[in-house]
Amino acid sequence: MAEADGSSSESVFLIFGRSGWIGGLVGDYLKEKGAKFEYATARLEDRSAILADIERVKPTHVLNCAGLTGRPNVDWCETHKVETIRSNVIGCLNLADLCNSKGIHMMYYGTGCIFHYDDDFPMNSGKGFKEAD
User: Fold this and answer.
1) For residue 130, what are the CA distances in angstroms to 39, 113, 115, 121, 127?
2) pLDDT tens across 80-91, in order?
3) Residue of higher predicted confidence among 126 and 13
4) Is the CB of residue 35 less than 8 Å from the CB of residue 10?
5) How high does pLDDT run on average in the chain?
6) CA distance linking residue 100 with residue 105, whole number of Å
7) Contact criterion met (CB below 8 Å) for 23 and 65
8) How far apart are CA 98 and CA 21, in angstroms?
9) Is 109 helix (H, G, I), strand (E, B) or coil?
């Protein structure tokens, strides 16, 4: 839909975090709804690459689903604190700052660890997870 000034009022989404679980689900949802979106190519630690993605896509909304979770598990983050802080803290702030300066709405999706329910942890049991789980 075109505006009087020739611009479009169509929402355009830019998703950071393509390879992650949440980013994949968000992309699938937007695709199902017929929304216009692209996945970012930049790493959050690279401010100039983030800006290049924003300038290329010209999003109305940025969805940040990116973040280091650690490989092979979250314990990696405990032994790689500098890398984790660069991505999950400074990187997120880079993205938020650039979106703010451009007047672009940014949504941040974040999780700690995602646990699944099973026989030991039944849904709605009230049994909580512990650090060792």
Assistant:
1) 34, 11, 11, 11, 10
2) 999 989 998 999
3) 13
4) no
5) 87
6) 7
7) yes
8) 24
9) coil
pTM of the complete model: 0.77
d(CA 83, CA 61): 27
The 10 Å CB-count burial string (b at 16+, else e) for 35-70 is eebbbbebebeebeebbebbeebebbbbbbbbbbbe
Instruction: Work out the pLDDT band at 92, boundaries 50, 70, 90.
Output: very high
Angstrom distances, CA of residue 54 to CA of 57, 97, 115, 133: 5, 12, 33, 39
Q: Around Cβ 109, how many Cβ atoms within 10 Å?
A: 17
Q: Which is it for strands 61-64 and 105-108: parallel, antiparallel or unpaired?
A: parallel
The dihedrals phi and psi of 38, each to the nearest 5 degrees, come to -140, 155
Residue ranges of alpha helices (H) inside 1-132 are 21-32, 47-57, 75-79, 81-85, 92-102
pLDDT digits (tens, 9 = 90+) for 34-44: 999 999 999 99
* AA identity, residue 76: W
